[in-house]
Amino acid sequence: MGLYRQDGTRITKASFPAVALDDPPVRVTEDVYVSEPYGRGDGQPEGSKRFLLYPAGTIVARSAVGRLFTSASIDSISPAKGPAAGSTAITIKGAHLDGVSAVTFGGTAGTGLHVRSATELTVTTPPGAAGPVSLELADDSGAITKADGFTYEAAAGG
User: Fold this and answer.
1) 38 burial type by CB count under 10 A (0-12 exposed, 13-18 middle, 19+ buried)
2) Were 103 and a residue from 22, 99, 110, 125 both cysteine, which residue would form a disulfide, CB within 3.0 to 4.6 Å?
């Protein structure tokens, strides 16, 4: 699920348009829309309808805002191996990936992150030392780690 401004730009958890009144209620400072895919579709924002979720001025419990940002999950990584030199384009499939803002491999940032849908993203591996490394997604709801999620392979003949 994605949250959007009226102009279609995505709202992240950190930029949710609200100001604290008392803890836990917050007042929504601009209209917030939720997207739902048309029928089965491909999950892409272009194949979605947007509905007004909270009009500006609505008072909402902070915990209700937090529940709108579901943690990402990783179902598969393909390919799961690549050369230590890096530059392997990988596809990560899972759920709620539309809030992912960065992917790291053993602590080193991947490049060319492209969130294709809420269930798929692509990223290119950085160089790394031979062996398995944890793959970490930076998400609206925090970090999601897949231990030994990618394996760097030593160069042939080395």
Assistant:
1) exposed
2) 110
